UniProtKB/TrEMBL annotation:
Pfam families documented for this protein: MFS_1
Subcellular location, record wording: Cell membrane
Native source species: Streptomyces lacrimifluminis
Principal location: membrane
Keywords for the protein's UniProt record, in alphabetical order: Membrane, Transmembrane, Transmembrane helix
SUPFAM superfamilies, A to Z: MFS general substrate transporter (SSF103473)
Location of the Major facilitator superfamily (MFS) profile domain: 36-428
Residue intervals passing through the bilayer: 35-59, 71-92, 104-121, 127-149, 161-185, 197-217, 248-266, 286-307, 314-332, 338-361, 373-392, 404-423
Cellular component terms (Gene Ontology): plasma membrane
Membrane-protein topology: Multi-pass membrane protein
InterPro entries: MFS (IPR011701), MFS_dom (IPR020846), MFS_trans_sf (IPR036259), Proton-linked_MCT (IPR050327)
Name by which UniProt lists this protein: MFS transporter
Amino acid sequence: MTTSVPTDDTVPSSSEAGWKSYLADLWNAPPSAKAALAGCLLLMLVSPSGLSAMTTFVVPSFAEDTGVAESAGILVFVTFPLLIGPITLPFAGRWVDRLGARRVAIPSAVLYAGLTALVPLCGSSVPLLAVVLSLASTFGFMSGLAVVFKVVSTWLPQHKGVGFALIGVASSLAAAVFSPVFQWLISGSAGLGWKGAYLLVAVVIALVAVPTAMFLISEPTAPRVTGPEVKLPRLPGIPLSKAVRTRVWISITISLAFAAAGPMTVRQNAVSFFSERGFSEATVSLSLSALFAASVVGLLVGGMILDRTDRPRVVVPMLAAVPVGLGIAFVNHGSMPLLFLAMIFLGFATGAESSLGPFLIARYFGLASFAQLQGLTLAISTLSLGMSPFLVSAVQTATGSYSVPVLALTALTVVAVALAVSLPKFPPQWKIGNAPDQTTGSA
């Protein structure tokens, strides 16, 4: 195993510049960069991440409609899509690296909308639902996460942290607003049920994602040069095959996977978990809005701090909010202030984690294989997101208690914090224009 440290292809960290210069440079970004960033935000609004609040209320509605256990509903609507969909992200990242963001985003957005519209037509057939939902999730991830981080990295290389934060803000704000809306649509007075909600969502995806991918998404283009001896600059960075063998990448991936599992598990089991603690479904939906709203704060604070520091240990308190929030949620029985406090801790961590992964990948390993490496990292961490809610629900069904699975989950999040503590100092930022760095050192 090796650690990879860039040497010649780097520039000083942006932390050496003043805040005024940092914000002015971001404000004065080219119009194409601003349009591309706006497109990224719109794609995230209707991505599986932005619409994640829906499944919290879809699962109980589906279980009541079909008579299946809620754990089976989580398996179909959450676990399978999150296990199968992100597997394609490394391949999608490779396509983005080679073909360009727009050429991947457009067909993916079309298929995402079409497959989402097919979900209500599957009725109560669990196998058919699992297939269609997994395919819809696959193309949803491809049109969103596989594209947006590469677009931001290339358009805003000195503002990656805040750029990634804004991407997460879009999905978090969407989820915060959509949480009570979906509760009203699915199980509230609107009475659409889970089938009607999916039809409505498919229409929204078609109206937002497809035009956005066609007209807003872009990447910087290299200037035209001619002549047999002129070589175009290449994005610097460490190759994928070397990066994945480093202790740094392994620590980042495991810590993000373990930490992200905590908030995701609470969100997907929120109705049953908190009902046992004396809270109504409407109250739970409001607390979820608080979680998503707090994630906006985590995203913005975390993103700006990351852009301005060479000390990776600033990520430790961001991840430490997860075991703290889980502990408060677990011991709380009927206290409204404690419910919202727990969700705020979990939300802050969720927001910070959303920008941590791509930022750490870009800082430690550069941009040469960024989309592929970020896709692989996200795919692995998303396996945890898909499995943890189902496993906790299944153990609760078998034992009649959330005690054992939630305590085990809390222990894993403590491991995530320990791994974050072990991360080495950030290298200087990569300098665009040279060939990818090949430097590796012994562990």
